[in-house]
Design a protein that fits this description.
This protein is 22% helix and 33% strand. With 210 residues, it is an alpha+beta fold. Strand 7 and strand 8 form a beta hairpin. Helix 1 packs antiparallel against helix 2.
Length: 210
C-alpha cells in the first residue's frame, strides 16, 4: 500500500496528465500542504515536463505560472474553411484545439459537438469560440472533447491566445476570459514557449482508501 503522501502525489500526477488548470492546483496543494518548500516545481505530464512557478504572499500561493511548452501547428490545411467547418486555427498544446473567432461565442453550445467529431479531426478535438474585446482581452467559451461545455480549460486558453497572435488578432500576451475566470497567457518569442498564469483555490478536502 502506498504511503499517504506518495498516494497524494500519484493522484495529483494523474490529474495533471495534460491539464494546465490541474497543474496550478497541484502547485498550490504541494506548497500549502507542506509537501515542498520550493517555489519552482517540475511536473511530469503526458505532454512533457511542465515547470510551475509559485507566486507567494503571506505563505500562501496566490497564483501559479506554468510553462506549457511550445505550441504545435500540425496541419495547415485546417486553416481553410469548408461548408460545415467554420474557418479557424488549429493549435496543439499537447492536445488538439480548434479556435474559431466569432462575434457569438455562445455558438459553442450549438456547434461544439458537431465540430468535435468533424472528419478533419480523426482523434476528435477541443473547440474554442473566441471574441476579441475592445480592451484586447479575449472572451472564450470551450467545448472539451468527450465532456462538452466546460467552465475553463488551461490548454484551451493557451491555444486561443496563440491562435489570436498567429493571425494578428492579439499580441504575444493576452487575458483569456472564460466562464470560470481569467487566465493570462504569454507566448514568448525568446523560447517559443507558452506561459499560463492564474489563481488556484482550495474548494474542499477529502480522503479515500487505496
Amino acid at each position: 500500500m502506498l504511503g499517504k503522501d506518495r498516494a497524494i502525489i500519484v493522484f495529483l500526477f494523474v490529474l495533471a496528465m495534460m491539464c494546465g488548470n490541474a497543474s496550478r492546483c497541484i502547485g498550490k496543494y504541494l506548497y500549502e500542504r507542506g509537501l515542498t518548500d520550493k517555489t519552482e516545481i517540475r511536473l511530469l505530464t503526458l505532454s512533457g515536463v511542465k515547470t510551475l512557478r509559485l507566486h507567494i504572499e503571506n505563505n500562501k500561493v496566490t497564483s501559479v505560472s506554468v510553462d506549457m511548452l511550445e505550441p504545435i501547428f500540425e496541419d495547415e490545411s485546417l486553416f481553410v474553411s469548408s461548408r460545415d467547418l467554420d474557418k479557424g486555427v488549429f493549435v496543439s498544446m499537447g492536445n488538439p484545439h480548434y479556435v474559431i473567432f466569432t462575434d457569438d461565442v455562445d455558438q459553442v453550445g450549438e456547434k461544439g459537438y458537431i465540430l468535435e467529431r468533424h472528419p478533419a479531426f480523426p482523434q476528435r478535438c477541443n473547440i474554442e469560440f473566441a471574441h476579441v474585446e475592445e480592451d484586447g482581452s479575449i472572451r472564450t467559451r470551450v467545448w472539451e472533447r468527450g465532456s462538452g461545455i466546460t467552465q475553463a480549460c488551461g490548454t484551451g486558453a493557451c491555444a486561443t491566445a496563440v491562435a489570436a497572435a498567429r493571425i494578428g488578432k492579439g499580441g504575444r500576451k493576452s487575458d483569456i476570459i472564460m466562464d470560470g475566470g481569467t487566465l493570462t497567457i504569454e507566448w514568448r518569442e525568446s523560447d517559443n514557449h507558452v506561459y499560463m498564469t492564474g489563481p488556484a483555490a482550495f474548494v474542499f478536502d477529502g480522503e479515500a482508501e487505496i
